[in-house]
Amino acid sequence: MRNAETSVVDSRWFRRYHRPVDDTPRTRLICFPHAGGAAGGYAALARRLAPRLDVYAVQYPGRHDRRHETPEHSLTALAARIAERLLEGTRGPYALFGHSMGALVAYETARVLARHGAPAPARLILSGRGAPTTTPDPHDRLDGDDAILAAVRRLGGTGAAVLDNPELLALALPVLRADYAALADYRWTAEPMLSTPLSIFAGADDPLVPQRAAAAWADLTSATSETLMFPGGHFYLGDQLDTVAEAIADLLPSLPVGPRGR
């Protein structure tokens, strides 16, 4: 990746919720939101991981201050756009973390970076999602707004304050439609394996991700992999934030960083 004065230069795409208090080089953790989610969902995790890691969260088009942009309807196109920004602006050791849809976007972003010969992430942490296959996940093929909203309520990803408020729901629905359309259209395609270590996180009671589906990610890397189960359902992160933060910090303890972050 090209050298840059800052670690991630495009603030439209990458949000930093806790700026380090000094210039000590730190591993960068780049976080990818779930379907319907936004970068702000990782603000609390960024606080928990500071100052050990320098955390950025991706802000997808179509949400919050990017609400006037058209949401991306293709998961692989979204990953390519994110990878392009990382190729332009990231240097030094970094890792990727994605939850639910974000796990797929993080994985596909890593594949785009590999195609370009960029330095691989030190680790890919994939949460709340089973390994992709050549056939669509039936949970992603939802017919219409009612089905989408029922799924969101069941999983708990969007609060009742949004779902029960017509004005807020009108803002959220275009993003949810686009994200679920991207998931429904996504097909995994075979290409050279990643050489990045994988860590798979999942909730023990997640109705969408049985442990065998989570463990199947191991087949998509030539490096090591491990599966960590946490108490809770699909959005176990909210209740297990401190535990998850410690697990992430343990996975990325002391990556080698030179005096200029190279």
UniProtKB/TrEMBL annotation:
Keywords: Hydrolase. InterPro entries: AB_hydrolase_fold, TEII, TesA-like, Thioesterase. One of its GO terms (molecular function) is hydrolase activity. Residues 30-252 form the Thioesterase TesA-like domain. Belongs to the thioesterase family. PANTHER family: S-ACYL FATTY ACID SYNTHASE THIOESTERASE, MEDIUM CHAIN, THIOESTERASE. This is Alpha/beta fold hydrolase. The lineage of its organism: Bacteria, Bacillati, Actinomycetota, Actinomycetes, Kitasatosporales.
